[in-house]
Amino acid sequence: MGRTTRLALGALTLLLVAFPLVLPRPGVPSSLKADEPAYLAMALSLAHDGDLRCELRDLRRLVEAFPLAPTHNLILMSDDGWRTVYFGKPYAYSLFAAPAAALAGAGGVVAFNMALALGMVWLGTLYLSQHNRSGPAALFSAGFFLVSAGFAYVFWIHPEVFNMAAVALSLFLLVYRFGPPPPGSSRWRRLRRTLWNDATRPALAGAALGLAVYNKPMLLALGLPALYLYGWRHRRLARLAAWSLGLALSVGALAGLAWTLTGHPTAYMGAARGSFEVCDPDEMPVEPVAPPPEAPAGLENPTGRPAAGSAARPPKASWSWILRVPDLRPRELAENLTYFLVGRHTGLLLYFPFALVATVLFLVHERRSGLRWAIALSTAAVALIFLLWIPFNWHGGGGFIGNRYFVNAYPAFLFLVTRLGPLWTTGAGYLAGGLFLGSILFTPLGRAVASPTLQFHVRSPVFRPFPVELSLRQIPGYQNQNFGSVLIRGRDDQILQRGDSLWVRGADRTELWIVSVAPLDRLLFSVTSFAEKNRVELALPGDRAELTWGGPRPGERTRVVELAPARPTRVRWTDGVPLWVYRLEAAAETGEVRRFEFTAPPERCDYFAYNASWQDSFFAGAELTYLGTRERLDRDVFGAEWRGVRVPWRVGAGESFPVAARLANTSGATWPARGAVRVNLGYRWLDARGRAVVQEERRATLEEDVPPGAVAALRVEVLAPPEPGLYTLVLEPVYERVAWFSDRAGDAAVHRARVRVVAPERMALPPGVSARSPEP
């Protein structure tokens, strides 16, 4: 490596390792994210206490580091009914980061991650310098590791960069052509030859991989290059045995220390584990559970603070999913493979552009290299393990940028490369990184945007042509709303759910994904404009509609639109069931600002309740209500028979009271219980002259669909009129957004009851008289 290259890399290392020490945290979100609480707490506990027990002093350290919001998702484990509590994540990363945490807390851990990232740049430069000039080698290596989603994880207190460094070191020791040992007979040189030679390097390579395997067992597939190199190509079984021994000793040493500290070889086996929220630094988030006499102590997967004395269940191994046989479904695997490569949030080619460059250079220059093919197959094996065993969560769960699980194996792509020609391919990698990763690289802690999320970067237009990963359960920054027969997904910053409707942002193009269990020939929407003058466009594949308010067509604010898609945007499969997906674009030219006041739910942590209420606003362009199909609106559901109603004869003015009813479906169609167009039970008041009393109306909803001939049990909360008098309570089912039952079937579906409304102070009754007794 040339002097200029060493100087440039040294300066870059000093800059990047130093600045995390003074980098303000937190970012987006404002608290520890994903599994950060456990990893940071473990590093601090090992640094200050020398153990892995979770105690009050550990909680105080978390709150001191991140004082703005509760700590969510603190993973804990116990094997004695939560009397003794340990941190419930593999500790290897935290063990190595503990010295940095002792020196500079959370910032020190980020600096440790940065040092690992720059260490990989140095390793990559050394490796590529054997085949290229050092300048281009350093440029490619820096781009490979720094212009990727992997660089984002430098700023996470998470083991991804640690695992990447372990994988990179392991493969470097396998493929780098080391020179002869230094001559001489000094004690130092003899010791160096003893510890660093062709026999010990395989063991060190296996030990390095063991550090990553302990955290992610599926990374064991990256041992395939060692098996090929030592077992197949050169038949050096002694070196293969040394590599295997190094791997076994590394994993065994970590498991043994874990056993000493926690009583278990890993947090994933033999203990009950759960996710907890730290609401108060002076109170443990979990209480001991008294075990029943016939069962051992423990609590399987608690999701909150369990009540003392509740029954406990034997723990199960969290790694049991690895041992099961995957349910192979080719259609779902093909869909996930597409997402894996070019998905909007996870695509390998978008978030790791140098992986594509490395693959191209491998196919051009090293396509006949068995070792490189072994490396390529090992990375493919890691990807398939995730895709096959956890097809709904192969990307990293609720906290990820790019593909958080596969990023651990990403360094393997570097060792597919030997020659870097043509050099424009390196520039292409940097260009792609600027387009797709610029927002991540220059704002690694997130950015102040509407509805802030780790996925804010996909709002850039360059991501719009790529598919949204509809098979994944969790993608931050999106809403999944069930509207009866369909599910609609949209971005948090573009939509706002209001009851059975969606508000779409004005002056914007909103992308909505409509997922249905059956193909949709025609879709009906109710569209309401918030502005007096507005233009709203709705577009599905093969059909579009444009609505204009004001100007030459003032009209009403609400209109019904019918769209006939030519085809579904996508047909996807889940659990062997086909789903039809339609991409709807809703563009509102303008809108109106709607303000809201939010109050935190009662279970919010009291310690952080200073911001328990706040105001927000939404620039609403239009309200969209999915009405279903024309067949759904034309369905004849208007047949009902009352099978029993309990209405009190005497109530207090302005008071709320319950009414229980049983209603039979005598129509020939099922009453739908969900969606904007569904059957509810409503009511209205008539005064003594038969005039309607205008006041708040409430609805009773069906718990489930009611087929013809079935009877539904309903309970509606009725609000009494504000003035005393004799009234008639009219109960009647309604097919929402279509008609009241009496409009189609007459008074047969209506139940009337006379109710006397009295002043509240007169509600006291003499002994022995009930409000449900007949009126005297």
Overview of this structure, please?
Helix content is about 35%, strand content about 25%. By secondary structure, the chain is an alpha+beta fold. It folds into three domains: about 5-30 and about 90-260 and about 325-440, no CATH class; about 475-630, Jelly Rolls, CATH 2.60.120; about 635-760, Immunoglobulin-like, CATH 2.60.40.3880. The strands form five sheets. Strands 4, 5, 8, 10, 11, 13 and 14 form a seven-stranded antiparallel sheet that branches. Strands 18, 20, 21, 22, 24, 25 and 26 form a seven-stranded mixed sheet that branches. α4 packs across α7, α5 (about 135-145) packs parallel to α17 and α9 (about 200-215) crosses α11.
Q: What's the main sheet like?
A: 7 strands, antiparallel
Terminal-residue CA separation: 104 Å
In one word, what is the shape? elongated
Beta-strand share of residues = 15-25%
Could you tell me the number of beta strands? 26
Q: Which structural category fits the helices and strands? A: alpha+beta
Number of domains: 3
**Percent range of helical residues:** 25-40%
pLDDT < 50 runs, ≥5 residues? 294-316, 771-776
Give the assembly state of these chains. single chain
Q: What count of helical segments does DSSP give?
A: 19
Look at the structure and give the mean pLDDT.
88
Radius of gyration: 32 Å
